[in-house]
Amino acid sequence: MKKINLTEGDALIITNVQNDLLPGGRLAVPAGDAIIPHLNDYLNAFSKQQLPIFLTRDWHPSNHCSFTEFGGKWPRHCVAETIGADIASDLKTPNYAEVISKSVDAETDAHSAFHGTQFNNTLQSKSIKRLFIGGLATDYCVLQTTLEALRQGYQVCLLEDAIRAFNKNRLDGIRAERLMCTKGAVPITFEQIACIASSPTATA
Ligand code: ZN
């Protein structure tokens, strides 16, 4: 197996691992919490090298257009300043990690972390070239963030062991993965990362 060395220019992106998207939440991704130990492995590897880490979150006003009561297709979720919008407390996130809030206006819904944010400028200012993308959900925020990153010219490593799909339709997650890889994302698992041994976690 070819090992991947983490290096300057790499950044870890964790999309939408928020309470409302986890089991028990208002818009739970099935078994979404199963990725948290794997995300913690990546967090550990990136923080050991002090490489940039970004956590994206939906940060909706209470009258957001994506909510069914306002004509959208999702139940009310991730309302700003509520516990449901909090990033999962089980994630072992270093203090220097940055949070990117998206879909903060009532009128716009964005699955991509680049949409309506300064994210691209932030990455450019840190000379980021390669993004390691994991989180929730494979068929929405991971998909759109990855496709936009590829369009913007970033290399993308898709964290296959640290993503989960909604699968509203049974094959949505598989289709999304296939599309991301067709467009140039490289699927990887944590075993491929060359780094100082991290604390062992259960493997799914
Ligand atoms: Zn949302």
- Report the β-strand fraction as a percent range: 15-25%
Report the principal-axis shape: globular
For the CA atoms, what is the radius of gyration?
Answer: 16 Å
Oligomer state of the chains in this structure: single chain
Query: What name does CATH use for the topology?
Result: Rossmann fold
Give the SSE string.
Answer: EEHEEHEHEHEE
CATH class: Alpha Beta
Structure in words:
This protein is an alpha/beta fold. The protein has one domain (10-192): Rossmann fold, CATH 3.40.50. The protein is built from four helices and eight strands; from the N terminus they run ββαββαβαβαββ. The strands form two sheets. Strands 4-3-2-5-6-7 form a six-stranded parallel sheet, sandwiched between helices. Helix 4 links the parallel strand 6 (155-164) and strand 7. It is globular. The chain starts with a strand and ends in a 10-residue tail after the last strand. The mean pLDDT is 95. Zinc ion (ZN) binds at residues 58, 60, 66, 77-78, 103.
Summarize the structure.
The chain is an alpha/beta fold.
Features:
204 residues, Rossmann fold, two-stranded parallel sheet, 22% helix, globular, binds zinc ion
Element layout with pairings:
Elements: E1 4-5, E2 10-15, H1 36-48, E3 53-58, E4 98-102, H2 119-125, E5 130-136, H3 138-151, E6 155-164, H4 172-182, E7 186-188, E8 193-194
Parallel strand pairs: 1-8, 2-3, 2-5, 3-4, 5-6, 6-7
Bound molecules: zinc ion.
Zinc ion binds at residues 58, 60, 66, 77-78, 103.
